[in-house]
């Protein structure tokens, strides 16, 4: 209850601050709040962004954003007066996550628009109003959450399936949905982008053309801090797969990779997600949204939910797991090996999976989003 009281006081303070800011003239600016950074380069390099006097980014992590004369980057902090001041005077707000400050945005100038790009193509893990923890919150907190989600004017959804999930998890209607994928998914619309990125990464890794890369990219788990904590027998896979197969790992930065695992490619640091997926021939994941994005490449995905029951009970899932992913579900290293060795993948199923989660990714997504900015 103490945390809830603090949040309500914070929201009250922020809303009053924005109310006072109404007396000041609006600036010809766009404010971007980001946790993930992946969409930002696509947004800020768009020609429309040069029409604004300022494009102000508040980032919770250090990203090497492409710089322009009108772009300014600051460290994100919901308690920063600078951040509140810039939000209160901006024409447009773009966010890629749920930030506490959104709870006070109901008193922004009425013509100011707030856009949510989100940060995932699809969803397995429950979030928003469907999160397991939401069920145990007091009624006042549930009401606050619902009001907060209404403060966002538009949500970018890359598929009808994701739009339906947003409507349920954020308690919104169709009028708030922009039928376009996240800006960074523009990358997958040009085969030349994919091929040149793939060639570049393979060159950096000294991989021959014959090498097939199998990448394991699990979701973050609080109890895993070393690769040995992950129940996937990587050594066995390396030994039993043909010699032209290489295992790659895309782990959470907190997970330590053992240096004695020979021949394993570490893609955790120094590679963007687009680079990782471009070089990957077969992806292994679990509850991460990375599989839905990888589907744009029309390559096989193996889902490995070895702790499905535990994860469902503690974290919660959007829906029945089997209805969210492909039929290539494995529960052991041996099952994964069997799928790979037998090339047990259906091109038609891969296409259907791609279409289900990416059916709005058929346009210039960045342009569609930014055309709605004032």
From TrEMBL:
| Signal sequence annotation | none
Please tell me where this protein is predominantly located: membrane
Q: Which Gene3D superfamilies match?
A: 3.40.50.11820, 3.40.50.12580
Matching SUPFAM superfamilies, A to Z? UDP-Glycosyltransferase/glycogen phosphorylase
- Keywords (A to Z) from UniProt: Cell membrane, Membrane, Teichoic acid biosynthesis, Transferase
Bilayer disposition of the protein:
Peripheral membrane protein
| Record's subcellular location | Cell membrane
Among the GO biological process terms of this entry, one is:
teichoic acid biosynthetic process
GO CC annotation terms, alphabetical: plasma membrane
- Tell me the GO molecular function terms: CDP-glycerol glycerophosphotransferase activity
Record's family?
Belongs to the CDP-glycerol glycerophosphotransferase family.
How is this protein named in the record?
CDP-glycerol glycerophosphotransferase family protein
Native species of this protein?
A: Nosocomiicoccus massiliensis
């Amino acid at each position: 209850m103490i945390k809830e009281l603090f949040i309500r006081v914070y929201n009250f303070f922020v809303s009053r601050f924005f109310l006072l800011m109404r007396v000041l003239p609006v600036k010809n600016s766009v404010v971007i709040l980001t946790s993930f950074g992946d969409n930002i380069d696509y947004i800020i390099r768009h020609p429309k962004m040069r029409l604004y006097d300022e494009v102000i980014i508040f980032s919770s992590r250090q990203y090497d954003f492409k710089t322009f004369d009108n772009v300014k980057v600051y460290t994100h902090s919901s308690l920063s007066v600078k951040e509140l001041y810039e939000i209160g005077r901006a024409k447009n707000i773009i966010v890629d996550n749920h930030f506490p400050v959104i709870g006070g945005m109901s008193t922004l100038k009425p013509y100011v628009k707030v856009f949510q790009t989100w940060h995932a193509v699809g969803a397995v893990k429950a979030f928003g109003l469907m999160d397991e923890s939401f069920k145990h919150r007091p009624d006042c907190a549930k009401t606050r959450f619902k009001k907060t989600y209404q403060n966002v004017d538009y949500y970018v959804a890359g598929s009808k399936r994701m739009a339906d999930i947003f409507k349920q998890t954020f308690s919104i209607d169709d009028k708030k949905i922009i039928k376009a994928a996240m800006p960074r998914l523009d990358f997958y619309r040009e085969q030349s982008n994919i091929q040149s990125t793939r060639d570049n990464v393979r060159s950096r890794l000294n991989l021959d053309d014959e090498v097939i890369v199998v990448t394991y990219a699990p979701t973050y788990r609080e109890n895993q801090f070393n690769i040995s904590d992950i129940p996937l027998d990587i050594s066995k896979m390396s030994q039993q797969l043909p010699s032209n197969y290489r295992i790659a790992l895309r782990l959470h930065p907190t997970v330590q990779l053992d240096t004695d695992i020979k021949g394993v490619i570490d893609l955790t640091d120094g590679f963007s997600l687009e680079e990782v997926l471009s070089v990957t021939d077969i992806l292994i994941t679990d509850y991460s949204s990375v599989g839905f994005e990888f589907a744009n490449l029309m390559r096989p995905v193996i889902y490995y939910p070895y702790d499905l029951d535990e994860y469902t009970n503690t974290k919660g899932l959007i829906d029945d797991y089997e209805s969210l992913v492909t039929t290539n579900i494995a529960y052991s290293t041996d099952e994964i090996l069997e799928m790979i060795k037998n090339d047990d993948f259906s091109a038609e199923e891969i296409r259907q999976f791609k279409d289900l989660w990416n059916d709005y990714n058929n346009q210039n997504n960045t342009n569609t989003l930014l055309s709605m900015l004032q």
